[in-house]
Amino acid sequence: MPSRVNPMLATSIEKPFDSADWLYEIKWDGYRSVAFLQQGQLRLVSRNHNDMTALYPELRELPAYVRAQDAVLDGEVVAIDDDGRPSFSLMQQRTGIRHGRFKAPGRRDVPVLYYAFDLIYLDGYDLHKVNLEERKRVLEQIVIPGHAARFSDHQGGKGVALFQAAGQRGLEGIVAKRRNSCYEEKRSREWLKIKVTKQIEAVIGGYTEPEGSREYFGSLVLGLYNRKAQLIHVGQAGTGFDQAMLANVFRLLKSLETKDNPFHGPVDAGRKAHWTKPELVASIRFTEWTHETSQGGLKLRAPVFLGIREDKDAKQCTFEEQLASA
User: Fold this and answer.
1) What are phi and psi of 240, to 5 degrees?
2) Which of 45, 195, 204, 324 is deepest in the core (most CB within 10 A)?
3) Does the CA dihedral 139-143-145-147 come out positive or negative?
4) If pLDDT is split at 50, 70 and 90, which confidence band does 212 have?
């Protein structure tokens, strides 16, 4: 039984497609996590190998919903809204904002559950080299649906219809997975993600002064890394915050404040900017990329802050990855 797994990651593409060689799933908007189940005990680990078990005490019952002595599952910890949709905003409220020793308190009254979409190991058998369709067939047999666990279902062949349904339901998007794909512990084109709305993870490199009645800060100054590992400014996000989120994010920003500008090249933030160490990752929704030659490159149009991604490493926020679907 493996003690450590690097989750298989999907490559972004722009448009859905139909193919009998592929399976299509809903893209869950939560925290990716690998579940290690051993003799009735659970260890839940993030994609960056941080132990998440204590964060979600209700998921400690997960082994009771899996017909196995020992197993390793891949899936997503998800908070569901009143309409039955996964909500990253609710997920952020549940976990609170975390970075290092600082933690804004989360809401324990927001329930979470675990959507399992892959099976890596089962009772003495390593399934890395078993094809996806067979792994999912076995996974569906061993997961007992309950308040702690769900099987992430799929459909074959019809990606366009599922993508359209996801859009109508207000979901983030879908994931296409090749039926015969093995489980590769890296980013692969055997798995493809197609988002309904444009959304990226960007590095926070600073914040601007507030204006008028606004408190704490005006907007987050955002960037992505280029191939030379230089942080390039891509715009600011000043909407998407309620008052509590403004206060919590501001405390986090102040703990990382520095005199050194982390960006390479010009930064036109519009107002006075305060710099921070480039350690925080923000999930951002936006309408499109624009090329603003006067400001030196690609910029986000109408960016909206969705939350802090503690499960993402800032160095992974590169143009190569984030522009793949642009």
Assistant:
1) 105, 0
2) 204
3) negative
4) confident
Are 48 and 228 within 8 A, CB to CB? no
Grouping H, G, I as helix, E, B as strand and the rest as coil, residue 157 is strand
Instruction: Say whether pLDDT at 136 is over 90.
Output: yes
In this prediction, residue 293 carries a pLDDT of: 44
Domain boundary residue, one of 176, 195, 214: 195
Q: What is the CATH number of the domain that holds 24?
A: 3.30.470.30
User: In the listed set 195, 220, 235, which residue is the last one of a domain according to the structure?
Assistant: 195
Could you say which of 27, 136, 195, 198 is catalytic? 27
**Residue 208, domain CATH:** 2.40.50.140
> Which tens digits make up the pLDDT trace of 59-105?
999 999 999 999 999 999 999 888 888 888 788 888 876 655 445 55
What is the radius of gyration, based on Cα positions, of the chain?
Answer: 20
Dist. CA 81–CA 111, nearest whole Å:
10
138 torsion bin: left (phi>0), alpha (psi -120 to 50), beta (else) = alpha
Q: What sign results for the dihedral spanned by CA atoms 246, 201, 225, 294? A: negative
* The two structure tokens encoding residue 80: 């569901």
pTM metric for this prediction: 0.74
pLDDT of residue 196: 84
242 shares its domain with 269: yes
Cβ count within 10 A of residue 123: 11
277 counts as catalytic: no
